[in-house]
Structures are given as C-alpha cells and as structure tokens.
Write a structure and sequence with these properties.
Strand content of chain A: 15-25%
Order of helices and strands of chain B: HHHHHHHHHHHH
Radius of gyration of chain B: 24 Å
CATH superfamily of chain B: MetI-like
Largest sheet of chain A: 10 strands, mixed
Number of helices of chain B: 12
Strand content of chain B: under 5%
Number of strands of chain A: 16
Structural class of chain A: alpha+beta
Distance between the termini of chain B: 23 Å
Shape of chain B: flat
Radius of gyration of chain A: 27 Å
Shape of chain A: globular
Number of domains of chain B: 1
Oligomer: heterodimer
Helix content of chain A: 25-40%
Distance between the termini of chain A: 76 Å
Number of domains of chain A: 3
Largest sheet of chain B: none
CATH topology of chain B: MetI-like fold
CATH architecture of the largest domain in chain A: Roll
C-alpha cells in the first residue's frame, strides 16, 4: 500500500510539475514575442494607430469615414491645407471677378511620390474626375464650373457662385491631386495610389484594415519626425484602449468617454474637434409631417426645457460644451435664447397639442456614435419636467432612412459633422443637416427665410458676413428647425507626446 | 453476449458500398436544400433591412445626386425581381457580387480571408475543447460523485454561465493588459504571428464550448465504464489506461461529433463576438462592417458562408456518426 501511495503521489507530482513547466514555457514563449515597445524613442519614430473602422477604398472621392479621410491627408497632396486653407501644393491663390474666379499658382518643382513631375495638368485631371458623380464632395466641388491649365504651373478655377473661402474649399479630402495619366483609370484606386502627400502607403490590406505608411522621399515639405505609421482596426473601444495600455499600439482612435475613467498617467486624451460639428435634437418638422413638433411653439418649449449643461457634464462626461445656436467657427453669444427655463417653456405650451401633456417618440440611435444614447436619455428626463413624455425607440442607424419619411417618429438625437469650416458651409450643412438623417426630406423648404439668408451668406463679402450671420441667428432662434445641444468631439487616446502628435483637427492628424 | 461487445471499437470501420452511398448522399442532399434556402432568406432579409449604401459609403457631405448615382451604378434602382435574378445568376456561376463599400472589389476577395480567420478560430476552438474535454470528462466519470467530479462539473457550470464578451474582456485585462504576455487584440502579419493573436479568442470560445463537451463526455464515459465488457476487461487485468483509450474514449466520440455539429452555429456566433472584442478580421467583423455601410453583397455572402459552414459541420458530423455507429445507418 505504501508503495502504491508513493507511486500515486509521484504521479501527481509529475503531473503538476509537467503542467507548471508547460504553463511557464507558454508564458515565456508568449513573453518573448512581446506586445510592443513602451520606449518613447521608438514611439516617436513609429506610430502605431488602432482605428475604429475599416477604410472602404483608397479613392478619396468615395471614402466617407474619418479613418479614410485621415489616410487621405497623410498620403495625398492637396492644393491647400485642411482646415485653414493655407497653401500647400499651391504657392499662391488669387481671387478675381468678385471671388468667382480663382487662379492657383503651383510651387515649382513639385513631384509625385514616384518621382514624376506634378503639373497643372494633373490638377485639372484630378478635379475633372471630381465633377462627375458619384463623389463625396457635396456642394464644394459642384460649385466649380470649370478648371483649366493656362500653363504648367497655373490652374484657373471658374465658379458658378462666388466663394470667398474657396482656398478652404480646396482642402476638402476628396480634392487630392493624382497623376493625370492614371486618375481616370478604373483600376487606379484598387491599389495604393500615387500622390504627393507626406507619406506613401507601403503595404496595405483594406479588408483587414492593416496598412503601413512610410515617408514620401519626394514630399515638397518638411518631413515629420514619425518615420512610419502602422494602422490596424479594432471595432471595440475597450479593446483599443487595452491595446494602448499594454503598449501594443501608441495611438487609439475614438474611445467612449465612459471608458476613460482612471486612465493611466502615461496616456493622454487628444480631443478631436470637427469644425462646425454638433450634437442636436432633430425634429420631425419637415415637409408633410403631422408631428406635434411642426408647431414652432412646441419646438421653442423643447428648446427651453433641454438642459445643455447637464447633457454636457453628465451625458458626455464634460468632454463637450453646451451649444447655444448654430456652431459657427466663432460661436455667437446666444445663451439667453437657449438657456433652460421650464416656466417659460410651460407657458409656450399653452394652447398647443402639448398643453396638458403629450408623448413624443424619440428614435434612439445606439449603434452610430457613443455620444447619442446618453444624450437621448437626458433629453427624455428634461422634457418630462414640462409634461412631455418621451418614448425612446431604438433604431439602427443603417435603416433610419426607412423610418424618417413616415410620421412614426417625432425626433432624434443626432450629430452632424462639417466637411469644411467656412461660415457658409457650416450654415448650409447645419440647416440641411436634417437631410443626412432623413433624406430625401430637407428642412429648408419649411423655412424659406433661413434658406434665403443661407444663400446670402455664401456670397457675402467678409465685412457683411457678420451681419448676415446675426440675421441667421435671430431667425434660427425663432424657427428652430432643430435644437442645438452641444458641440461634438471625439476622444482619441495616445501615449505619444504632443511634440510628436498634437490633437487632430477633424480628419487631419497633426504630426510634428 | 452481444452486450459485451463495445458499440464502437478502435478497429477499422467497414461499410458496404450501397450503405456508404446512403450514408453520404442523404445528408449532402439535405445540405444543398438548406443552403439554397439560406441564400433566398438572406437576400430577402438583406433587402428588407438595407439602409442606403450610397449615403453610408459617401458620407454626410455627399449630394443627393451623388448618392443616387452611386446607388444607380450598383443597380440598386432596379426592380426587386431583377436584382434577385441578378444575384442568383451570379451565385450559380460562383460569383458573390461586388462590394458596395469597397467599390469594384469582388465580395469573394473580401470574404475569403475573413472565412479563413473565422474557420481557424472555430476549428482551433473545437480541437482545444475536444482535447481538454476528453481527459476531464473521463476523469470526472471515473471519480463519479467524488471531489474531482464535483470540481469538474462545478467549473463547467461556472464557465458555461460566463458570456463570451465578458470572458474575452477579462482575458484581455488579465493576460494582455496586466501580464502583458499576449496581444490584447488585432491581427498579425503571417501564420506564426497570427497564432499569438488567436490564443485569447480561442481561449474565450473554449471557456464556453469545452464545458458542453466535458459534460457529454462525462455522461457517456460513466455509462461505458459501467458496461460489462469494460468490467470484464478490468477483471482480466487489462490496465485501466488501456481500457479507457480502447473502450471509453472511442465511445465518447459519437456524442462529441453530434455536439460539434450542433454547436457550430453558436460557435460562429461566438466567433463574431470575439471578432469585435479582439479585432480579428473574421466573418463577424466582415458582417458588422458590412452592416454599418449597408454593404448587402458582403452581408449576404457572410450569411451564406456561415450557413454553408454550419450545414457542412452537421453533414460531416452526421456522416461520421453513421460510419462509426452501424445502428444509425
């Protein structure tokens, strides 16, 4: 019996020892592989970015997401810089004919990344391609009547309507310059295209969302300190943050605010501002709607009942600021017309369909941006204070266009990002933001005065623009096609010092 | 005396040719019908829930004219029957169509790499689960109602109750963030580097799948261990390990095959979740990305391939079972 017991014990010991050895070997093996370097010097030369979504195409005229736009600005050449419109490939821009013609002079000796010369012929071919839909360019490019090349270094743009901020318009992500010989070829964008940005796509696999950028040896400007950028894609925000915390990557795109509590001290938040962007309460007040929100008094009451401070602080963890009107680049001081006043809101409801309380149906879009669901919940709480019961109905973003043409909804919290940063484009996009969510409806036919003012602003010289903006603000506060709530930021998190990567502005990563 | 014979032994399996056709042909025919139905249903469902691909791909700034042109280029303004005929005509020629979100890119070139990733995850999970469940299940059966049995069953119950996503996040925090021994997510650049990225996803799925197998093995092993032929073998002095390998384990394969077939659907569902949690470029990620951009051809292809995958798993399980167990022929 003793012998048996000893053997049994030895067997168990052997099993335990073997298990421990296997476990140790596995850990050692895994550890040998490493998960990334936390060496600041390495982080400076190689930027490892984890994206949130895949890029559908290398074609800047067809990619519609932030990831795609960021790649565009890193790898393609533009006449002017996003977002301020200062010259890049262009050396100078000169408006004539009351801002209806713009002459662009190119920098001398420009080259594409493959070393071939970049001339005005390439600029013309690149823009002519954009003039044929489908593209993601919107009205920016549609305003171009013609583009010609009087000589190899000069490009002449003729516009349909005057555009005082055309230099900024040229910085839209789709307005990248490609070689004339290839740009119209159907296969040009199947592989990483040749252009003239600071980086080139060395290797890439769009389907898996992994690609590597290296510096463009023929870039006209100063090379950034980051020599290589590696992109990967992970949909889940928690995993992106975990990758960052473990040193696997050093830059994570768009992390929800709720996951940023207790962020390690070696990580910092890069707030990504999108010019003219906002979180708003869209209302079903378009043409043909029979929703109670078509009543301007009810819209005004809702406007006074929402607590923007609470939304900014509680729902959005203090990362966004209350918005009191149209999100101009230089916000107007309209807080009085938009500050919370439930007493006045209740007075406004007298004599309306909501005088004795009512229920409105708010579409809750939970799968679009993390900001929207918590804001919807605070709006629901706020409106209860004036007797408006809010029924939140979950609605997938992909099929929102199927619901909104009907009357089976009254509102939704949405967000709108601006493609450009001029006052007229902000006004246009703001006033037609309804279209993105509810196409093909458009708010403007319901608000002709606002539509006419928006058109006036687009052609107003700088001196008169401020006055027109004021008129729009006044008319907007009266009509309230939608209710502004807060501005919109996305929160990137990084372990790379600001001396290497500053907070991005919209789609452009600021690499030093 | 017949009861003394094991139902399945490790000896070579001999099946008459006519029976072999019956064993193989029937499940394959059923699989073809199911696959055709899956294709029809995914097409109809996709059309019902599809948003606006043009708007989803081109973004907020695009004009309605551009969005309409984009959709027209894809034939989305064609009548439903035309689109249906076009889709099925393509399928019959092995053409899954062209992606909406990746203009000009054949769907197959997007889905094939994703299928490889998901298949790797699913197959590795099954292998690891089988390898773990057989010794654990047999051990628990041998120590029936003992401490080891209670421990194995208790651990299985706990593991079964953990949601996939939660298990994945815990593994990420413990193994990747705290211990820093494996990557938290993403995908490598070659087969060897990919293996490191597969450890946590496979571990996550194994946490849920292995207990199912363990319980099945335990139940079957407990029955077989009480069989007279096993008792007789032990009484003849055949070593217990030999008895287990030759008589108990082969008898547990049948229930395991059934479970593998019936759990493949759930496993693919789980793989979709781990794709999102771990950022794997598998079918789950392809499906979620396609849903976000209203990329119907990719959604249809993923659903179709998943359906085929599950059907094939069931077919193989059924055929293998019939080959192994003459009573099922």
């Amino acid at each position: 019996m003793k012998i048996t017991s000893k053997i049994a014990h030895r067997g168990r010991w052997k099993t335990c020892a073997a298990s421990a050895a296997v476990a140790t070997s596995m850990l050692a093996l895994a550890a040998c592989g490493g998960t990334g370097s936390s060496d600041p010097a390495a982080a400076t030369s190689v930027l490892k970015i984890v994206n949130e979504a895949d890029i559908g195409t290398f074609d800047p005229a067809l990619n519609g997401n932030t990831e795609g736009h960021r790649l565009d600005y890193l790898t393609y050449g533009y006449l002017t810089k996003f977002p301020d419109g200062t010259p890049e490939l262009a050396q100078a821009l000169k408006p004539t004919d009351g801002n209806k013609s713009w002459t662009v002079t190119l920098r001398p000796g420009l080259k594409f990344s493959d070393g071939s010369p970049l001339t005005s012929k390439d600029v013309v071919a690149s823009f002519e391609r954009l003039l044929k839909p489908p593209t993601n360019t919107g009205e920016v490019v549609e305003n171009i009547a013609s583009v010609t090349a009087p000589d190899p270094n000069t490009v002449l743009f003729k516009l349909r309507q005057p555009d005082v901020a055309f230099a900024k318009s040229l910085a839209i992500n789709s307005a990248a310059i490609f070689p004339a010989a290839n740009v119209s070829s159907g296969s040009f964008f199947k592989t990483p295209p040749i252009s003239a940005g600071p980086y080139v796509i060395d290797k890439g696999d769009l389907a898996s969302g992994s690609y590597t950028l290296t510096q463009n040896p023929n870039y006209w400007g100063k090379a950034a300190s980051v020599k290589e950028i590696d992109f990967t894609t992970v949909n889940d925000g928690g995993t992106r943050l975990a990758q960052l915390e473990s040193g696997q990557v050093n830059y994570a795109k768009s992390i929800p605010a709720s996951q940023l509590k207790g962020l390690p001290s070696n990580l910092h938040i890069n707030k990504v501002a999108f010019p003219g962007s906002m979180i708003q309460l869209l209302l079903n007040d378009g043409p043909g709607s029979s929703s109670v929100t078509t009543d301007p008094k009810i819209r005004q009451a809702i406007n006074l009942a929402v607590d923007r401070e609470q939304i900014a602080k509680v729902a959005l963890s203090g990362y966004m600021a209350p918005l009191y009107g149209i999100p101009w680049a230089d916000p107007s001081k309209q807080a009085d017309a938009f500050s919370r006043d439930t007493t006045k809101a209740k007075q406004l409801l007298q004599g309306t369909a909501c005088a004795n309380g009512c229920t409105i149906k708010l579409l809750n879009i939970a799968d679009f941006n993390w900001q929207l669901p918590p804001v919807s919940q605070v709006v629901q709480q706020n409106l209860k204070d004036i007797g408006i019961n809010v029924e939140l109905v979950n609605q997938p973003s992909a099929t929102i266009g199927k619901v909104t043409p009907s009357d089976d909804w009254d509102g939704m919290v949405g967000d709108t990002g601006s493609a450009l940063m001029t006052d007229s484009s902000v006004a246009r996009l703001s006033l037609t933001s309804f279209q993105w969510w509810t196409e093909p409806a458009n708010d403007l036919p319901m608000f002709p005065e606002l539509a006419s003012l928006e058109a006036k602003l687009a052609s107003a010289p700088a001196k008169k623009a401020a006055a027109v903006r004021g008129q729009i603000d006044t008319e907007f506060a009266k009509e309230l096609p939608w209710i502004p709530l807060t501005n919109l930021y996305f929160l990137d998190v990084s372990s790379v010092p600001a001396s290497v990567v500053e907070s991005p502005i919209g789609w452009r990563l600021n690499l030093k | 005396m017949a009861t003394l014979q094991p139902i399945v032994s490790s000896r070579a399996i001999r099946v008459p040719r006519a029976a072999l056709y019956r064993v193989i042909a029937a499940p394959i025919l059923k699989a073809l019908v199911v696959t055709a139905l899956v294709a029809v249903i995914t097409f109809i469902l996709g059309k019902l829930v599809l948003g606006d691909p043009g708007r989803a791909v081109l973004g907020t700034a695009a004009s309605q004219q551009s969005v309409d042109a984009f959709n027209a280029n894809l034939g989305l303004d064609d009548p439903f029957p035309v689109q249906f005929a076009h889709y099925f005509g393509g399928l019959l020629h092995g053409d899954l169509g062209t992606s909406y979100a990746y203009p000009g890119t054949p769907v197959w070139s997007l889905v094939w790499p994703a299928l490889q990733v998901s298949a790797s995850v699913a197959i590795l999970t099954v292998i690891v689960s089988v390898l773990l469940s057989i010794p654990l299940g047999v051990l628990a059966a041998q120590r029936k109602r003992g401490v080891v049995d209670y421990l194995v069953r208790g651990a299985s119950l706990v593991a079964l109750s953990i949601p996939w996503a939660f298990a994945g996040l815990v593994l990420i925090i413990v193994v990747a963030v705290k211990a820093e021994v494996l990557p938290a997510g993403g995908w490598g650049t070659g087969p060897m580097s990919n293996l490191r990225f597969l450890v946590l996803p496979v571990g996550t799925l194994t946490i849920n799948l292995c207990p199912v197998f363990v319980r099945a093995v335990r139940e079957r092993a407990a029955v077989v261990l009480d069989e007279p032929h096993v008792e007789a073998a032990l009484a003849r002095g055949v070593p217990k390990v030999w008895v287990v390998i030759n008589h108990v384990v082969p008898n547990c394969i049948g229930p395991l095959l059934t479970l593998i077939g019936s759990n493949f659907g759930a496993l693919l569902g789980g793989a979709a979740i781990v794709d999102v949690v771990f950022g794997l470029p598998g079918l789950g990620k392809a499906l979620t990305s396609a849903a976000a951009t209203s990329d119907l051809p990719v959604m249809q292809a993923v659903a179709l391939l998943a359906g085929i995958f599950v059907t094939l798993a069931n077919v193989f399980a059924e055929i293998a079972q019939r080959l192994l167990d003459p009573r099922l022929r």
